[in-house]
UniProtKB/TrEMBL annotation:
The entry's keywords: Membrane, Transmembrane, Transmembrane helix
MF terms (GO), sorted A to Z: DNA binding
Protein name according to UniProt: DUF4115 domain-containing protein
Biased composition, class Low complexity, residue ranges: 145-177
All residue ranges annotated as the Cytoskeleton protein RodZ-like C-terminal domain in the record: 217-290
Biased composition (Polar residues): 97-109
Organism: Paucilactobacillus nenjiangensis
Superkingdom assignment: Bacteria
Transmembrane segments: 117-138
Ranges for region Disordered: 89-109, 144-189
């Protein structure tokens, strides 16, 4: 080998790395090869690597990372690189063989010891099975006694159950009437769109309510909201996606103003009536929604 060949493999790898725009730290992170070993490869100080086997393995991995053909590079500079089957490598294999034999001997001895305990294990299992049977018998006996006591008290329980059923029926009837009133209040309202622009929408709401208005807000995307009525702020905050908020508005109010941070991601209802604030997505950037109560605004128009 002449002097021109010496240093070529290290220089070739270094040049390829630089051409790729990689530092030694970048290469260390990608290949998981310690930086000091990468420097030793570039300087061709192969004695600093952990063994002859790792010289070829590290060079191949280095080459493929910087875009070179690792196998071709190893063949090209084969004479410069240490032989994989070195004396050190063969000694490690020889040292491991006695250890393997010793491991097999220990495994065989362990199986023999295990066989000695098999009769004891069988006896323990039988004893546990007998104790389990006794325990199940005792449980069954207690269950029969409880069943007898339950039969003797069935008459009083039946009477109590009848009273509870009657009470539940009365509560259900009362709840049904209450829901009916709410539905009647909601259906009495009529909501129409009075005017729309790209940033504002006005709705007319006609019809009387027997109690306060309920403004229901829900978000399909994160949205900042503020509700004002009669000069007072009733709610101000941010609803995250999937969040909802119910705001009570006095029945004597004449209007409600809703400021919206994300019109496309906000759903609005008044007493269960949906207000399409974006006109089915036509105005996704609406910022101000005015709700005129009892038809106090101008006539409806789209």
């Amino acid at each position: 080998m002449d002097n021109n060949e010496v240093g070529q493999i290290g220089r070739k790898l270094r040049d390829a790395r630089v051409a790729k725009g990689l530092t030694l730290d970048d290469l260390q992170q990608t290949t998981k090869i310690q930086k000091r070993f990468l420097i030793a490869i570039e300087d061709e100080n192969f004695d600093e690597l952990p063994g002859d086997f790792y010289v070829r393995a590290f060079i191949k991995q280095y080459a493929e990372t910087v875009g070179l053909d690792g196998e071709a590079l190893l063949q090209e500079f084969n004479e410069q690189l240490p032989d994989v089957h070195s004396v050190e490598y063969e000694e490690k294999i020889t040292e491991n063989e006695p250890a393997t034999r010793s491991s097999k001997t220990k495994t065989s001895s362990g199986l023999d010891n295990l066989r000695q305990y098999i009769p004891t294990v069988i006896v323990v299992v039988i004893v546990i099975a007998i104790l389990g049977a006794i325990w199940l018998t005792a449980i069954h006996s207690r269950s029969n006694n409880k069943s007898t006591n339950a039969d003797s008290s069935s008459v009083s329980v039946s009477s109590s159950s009848t009273k509870k059923t009657s009470s539940s029926s009365k509560k259900a009837s009362s709840s049904s009437k209450s829901e009916s009133k709410k539905d009647s209040s909601s259906s009495a309202l009529k909501v129409t769109a009075a005017s729309r622009t790209s940033s504002a929408a006005t709705f007319n709401v006609t019809g009387k309510v027997s109690s306060d208005y309920t403004l229901g807000l829900s978000a399909t995307e994160s949205s900042w909201l503020q509700v004002t009525s009669g000069g007072s702020t009733l709610y101000s905050g941010t609803l995250e996606s999937g969040g909802s908020k119910s705001v009570k508005v006095d029945s004597s109010a004449t209007s409600i103003t809703l400021s919206v941070g994300n019109g496309a991601g906000t759903k609005v209802k008044l007493n269960g009536k949906t207000l399409d604030i974006t006109d089915s997505g036509t105005y996704p950037n609406v910022r101000t929604v005015t709700i005129q109560l009892n038809g106090t605004s101008s006539s409806s128009s789209n």
